Amino acid sequence: MSRLAQIPGEWIDRSRPLPFEFEGRRYGGFAGDTITSALSASGLRMLGRSFKYHRPRGVLSLANHDVNALVQDGKSLNLRADVTPLEANMRLSAINTFGGLAADRGRLLDRMSRFLPVGFYYKTFYRPKFAFPHWERLIRKVSGLGTPNFSAPRVRTPKRYDFCDVLVIGAGPSGISAALAAAKGGASVILVDENARIGGSLTYAPGAADDSESLSKMLMRVAVEPNISVRTSTCACGYYADHWVALVDAAKMTKVRARAVIVASGVFEQPAVFRNNDLPGVMLASAAQRLLHRYAVKPMQRAVILTANAEGYAAALDLLNAGVEVPCIVEMRAAGEQTAALQELRKRSVPVYASSCVYEALPAHGLTGVDAAVVCPLRRDGRADTVSKQQFDCDGILMSVGFAPANGLLHQAGAHMRFDETIQQFVPGALPYGVFAAGRVNGSYDMGARLADGERAAALALRHMGLEGAQAAPTVAPETRCPSHPYPIVEHPDGKNFVDFDEDLQLRDFSNAAQEGFDNIELMKRYTTVGMGPSQGKHSNMNAIRILAHIRQLPVPEVGSTTARPFFHPVPLSHLAGRGFTPERRTPLHARHQQAGAKFMEAGVWLRPEYYSQDDKLKADLVIDEAMAVRNSVGLIDVGTLGKLAVIGPDAAELLERMYTGRFKNLKVGMTRYALMVDESGVVIDDGVVARLSEESFYFTTTTTGSASVYREMQRWNAIWGLNCGLVNLTGAMAAMNVAGPRSRDVLAGLTDIALENAAYPYLGIRDGHIAGIPVRAMRVGFVGELGYELHVAADNAAYLWDALMQAGADFGIRPFGVEAQRLLRLEKGHIIIGQDTDGLTTPFQAAMDWAVKMDKPFFVGQRSLHTIQKQPLKQKLVGFALDPGHTGPAPKDCHLVIHNGAIAGRVTSVAHSATLKKIVGLALITPELSAIDTRFDVRIDAGAMIEARVVETPFYDATGARQKEAVASPQREVIPA
Amino acid sequence: MKLLNCPINGPRPVSEFAYGGEYRDMPDPAASTDAQWAEYVFNRHSVPGVKKEWWYHVPSGTWFVAERDVHADIVHSTYIYGEGPK
Fold it and tell me: What's the average model confidence in pLDDT over A408-412?
């Protein structure tokens, strides 16, 4: 056991022992332990196997990027043992082993590593091609992560939303200082830290504080500050526009909107690169200190300290005080700073080897630990002088050679980074609006400076928010000592000097990449995959930049860094998964359609009945039945999806005249008129019916899909023109249904107080009245080519009216008809559907709708473009066509191409078999030279066969419109086909 | 998520808004040549910098003009058409 006696401030609760299992053996830990600390306390060094070579790995950082110590606990996989809290009765196993952690058969890969350089599989397994799937499967298996359990229960992960004035990311000394200052200034503060407790480096490197009481004092001040909300074990994972930050904890994601963000996220300690720097027992100095101070674990018995900064001496003294032997300190620089720790170490006769390096770590049997450190003087060229090497027995090597800023969120926020040569670190140069940095991420290392930097950032944040009484920002003296070695990397002919522990990248992989031409940092990242593992380069990117700078003989800032994108830290997909949300609108008659057996189709965001099913009848037959009911008797269709707008005011007619191509000032009260809309380029975009209710009041419809955009565009133009009228969108408030067919008047006759005779209520008239006692606005329309009334009612009354009509129509054989039948009926009339018979380039002239365009009006949107277009020859023309009545076999479909002289000459826009006309008819947009009546053209149908069609006049049916204009006598002469 | 300041409703998440394109003054249709008119209808200038844009607050049906630095994505001001700085 290497658990020490109680350490002041330790995070474990010794009164709550927790038994657990790892790799089939039982262990014990305490509440407050992480999995790693509990295993370390039990004397375990080897915690996992590496991704590629299956080398034993142990503690590296204990700071949320020990990605070689990932464990699986049943359905939870890839748990980071270094930070995952220990729970009672966990049954843990290391991931990615073959036959268990100790006996992993994958370890053979390490011996083959010289044959498995970076990119080997791109280069090796592409031939023969058929074998690749085999290799791919093998590679995926060998270099895997945890095993997903596909029977794991489905978990719904909540999302939370939160708001604050100042979001402080990182609760170390500078973050706490910033939070306290901001809260004191009157801001509401959320203070976030990924650790289980706040305090940052003060929780494991107490020697850094000038006053040993300062941590507990700080924690007390935070605890009593009502303006601060503390979120521990929570990672700020992504920065989005306008200070929107994703906070991720074990259970959920919280999206926080802040008015200002202070990033005090600190630094990541960085490893030195030397041979076997990955052995269990070789760890960052801060990792050893975390084990010691947070979990009271003695990290090793005898540690060689490799350092290049003052932090290394403090750590050495820390370990010495905990009973760890320190045979020597290896100082990479010519000399260390004259700190109290150094003097104390001298007093205790710890030898310091200056200008030296650890050349390699000698492994214990099976690479399961360290036996000794080989120390060499560093030559001027940065290589080890192996002639004068010395060997020091040890079971651990601490690395304290430098730091990299945890600046991912600053990058995401758009901060511009500059490289500070004095401290050998990227620090924020220009910061985006409302984003501030403090502490070590901002280049402040001295404890006093870190606290002052926090106050400075808070003052700036308060000023940014315009809070009264914001104090002047204190100035912070620039750092003068250098905490990071410029090149803590030592070459070794036998390699195994790891740069990226996630993916087992060695120093030579980088020189190989550069040699092959991938010598730009972004290319090198992609070729070597550095920084692409679960730790996302947190321990490897800085060294990779230094290595590339070294290879290319460039200064570090010229090499630059790779782009940092969200997420800064891996986030479980379950946290991100949301519920599918596709808005879908239903008309007030939806339930009626369901009862009638409707098959629904999507029309824009709406669901509309395509047709009404009946037992075993075929769709094609049902559509014909529905259409024939309209032609011969009466049918009822829900048209409530049409856009329904009203415009009211003295300038209402003027607005309509400017928006639509037609004329509306002369429209008589009580009458309706077809309306066509084009955009500024003269392309047809919408149509509908405009009704004049009074001099200054119009009610009009738009297409189903166009309702939102027509309303919006009319609002925009009216904002510009400032006409004296107002627009109301009644689309959702009103329902509409069209009762159509020669018997429609008979259906209404017994229900309404509206005079229906042709003389009193002509075609295209609009009347307000009652039907079945309900206030109804009725428009006499002819879209389907029969006598018909489009009835607009308040949405709440729709179902009642529908029922009344169906009941009254029963004697006449009324039946509901769907969109398919309506399409057929209108096609027989040659009426176009915007968006089906027109496309994004079709002008009114091409659609043969010149009659609807009043070019002599003073102005309408698109008129000027149509003036130009009018002068040019037509490129296409919409024509009606028919196939020979005797045609059998496959028929053209929508969008089949018209072929003329071997070239595309147009396309079919609508086509259907008309039972009324007993032939196939359709509309086609074709080249004008084929548009004359009786011209024959070829349509290429499925499978390439050519079908001949002939241009004919439209409407195909009832060319004079007699049926819709006048009631047709004796409908009984036509018989509904059985 | 970005915030936009609707002149009527105050700052709202950008998901509540629809973009209405760059604000452009329409030339006099009668006085402009075909080429000048085509330039107005079809050509947009994607030069980065501060631009006037149409934005629409969907729930309230409010059109307004935003002066936005499209390079830095910073909105300098928003105002109802005709009420802003000339």
Answer: 95
